[in-house]
Specification:
Elements (H helix, E strand, L loop, with lengths): L1 E5 L5 E4 L16 E3 L16 H26 L4 H25 L15 H25 L3 H26 L4
Antiparallel strand pairs: 1-2, 1-3
Helix pairs in contact: 1-2, 1-3, 2-4, 3-4
The protein binds zinc ion (ZN).
Length: 178
């Protein structure tokens, strides 16, 4: 039994082997390290945050909060139980992404909004796939603009996590699960 920690969101995992993805934020295996190799409490501390990074972190915070709110709606409303279960997971991941951005900015904990979604799960999946694609494009741009290594690493990890979200949404659409 070993203890691992995600360097992106700080979540600890207890497992035999290094997890392939962070169970909380979806960061890839390369961001998960043995607990003792991850510095304790300064994961979200950046001494001098540039205006550019502040702006992009705020955009990320708003985008992920919006997505989390939409996914939460789609986890309750919809006509396919398996799709609703997947949206429950996507909502948790997006909420965690928003939470990381707000920690870098030193803001108060986020509150999800009331968002509208469809009663047809397939329509929600289509929207989710688009949202993930838009997020990938945003994070690619943000990662190139970030001069602080922690912020750049966070944005890069989000590119992979959002790509995965898009793949999941498309897979569910094509699986006949909707
Ligand atoms: Zn994580």
């Amino acid at each position: 039994m070993n203890i691992y920690r995600c360097t992106i969101c700080g979540e600890a995992s207890i497992a035999e082997k290094r997890p392939s993805d962070c169970p909380l934020c979806g960061a890839k295996k390369r961001y998960i390290k043995e607990l003792e190799k991850v510095k304790g409490d300064d994961l979200f501390v950046v001494k001098k945050l540039s205006d550019e990074s502040k702006k992009n972190l705020l955009l990320a915070l708003n985008m992920e909060t919006y997505n989390a709110s939409f996914y939460k709606c789609a986890s309750v409303n919809g006509d396919v139980e398996t799709v609703k279960a997947v949206f429950k997971r996507l909502a948790k991941v997006a909420r965690e992404h928003a939470d990381i951005a707000r920690k870098f900015l030193g803001l108060d904990p986020i509150i999800l909004q009331e968002e509208e979604c469809s009663l047809v799960s397939a329509e929600n999946l289509q929207k989710a796939a688009v949202r993930c694609l838009e997020a990938v494009e945003f994070y690619k741009k943000a990662a190139t603009e970030a001069r602080e290594s922690k912020i750049s690493t966070f944005f890069k990890a989000m590119i992979d996590a959002e790509e995965e979200g898009g793949i999941v949404a498309k897979k569910m659409l094509n699986s006949g699960n909707q």
